[in-house]
TrEMBL record:
It holds the Pfam family SnoaL_4. InterPro entries: NTF2-like_dom_sf (IPR032710), SnoaL-like (IPR037401). This is SnoaL-like domain-containing protein. Gene3D superfamilies: 3.10.450.50. The lineage of its organism: Bacteria, Bacillati, Actinomycetota, Actinomycetes, Pseudonocardiales. It comes from the Bacteria. SUPFAM superfamilies: NTF2-like. It comes from Amycolatopsis xylanica.
């Protein structure tokens, strides 16, 4: 599959929408960003994965429940930037940088690595890995751009 410029723009928008929904505590709209079988790997943050839980609920429903239980916390803004999109079989992969700004002015940096699929509702994230940025010069290997 070849990604068009429209595909790339829509993928950028889906990734950005996540931050807007988090900032608004609009977790019930996460289906606009993620697939029902979503997998989130937060092990690099020292957290356990969201359990599949009740078989009558999707993993996305479990993820939404975790977000609601955590509440808005002290984060004023969740920002995403430096998005890179690559074809990946029938889907796409994307890497982006994230920042959170807390009420006390503290800033945290992280990296998202996403696997996306095209659904009947548009592009959605099926798998997300979240890695913290804790040391300068340590992160993902530089990506080779097509040329």
């Amino acid at each position: 599959m070849s990604l068009t410029a429209d595909d790339r723009l829509l993928i950028h928008e889906v990734i950005a929408l996540h931050g807007h929904l988090c900032d608004a505590s609009a977790y019930e709209r996460f289906d606009e960003v993620f697939t029902p079988d979503l997998e989130v790997d937060v092990s690099d943050l020292g957290l356990r994965p969201v359990p599949a839980g009740d078989p009558s609920r999707s993993r996305l429903d479990a993820y939404i429940a975790v977000a609601r239980n955590r509440g808005p916390g002290s984060t004023l803004a969740m920002l995403v930037t430096n998005i890179i999109v690559r074809e990946d079989g029938d889907g796409a992969r994307a890497w982006s940088k994230g920042l959170t700004v807390n009420q006390d002015g503290a800033v945290a940096g992280f990296t998202y690595e996403d696997q996306l699929v095209r659904t009947g509702q548009g592009w959605r994230i099926r798998r997300r890995k979240v890695s913290p940025r804790r040391e300068p010069g340590r992160g993902l290997e530089p990506l080779v751009l097509p040329g």
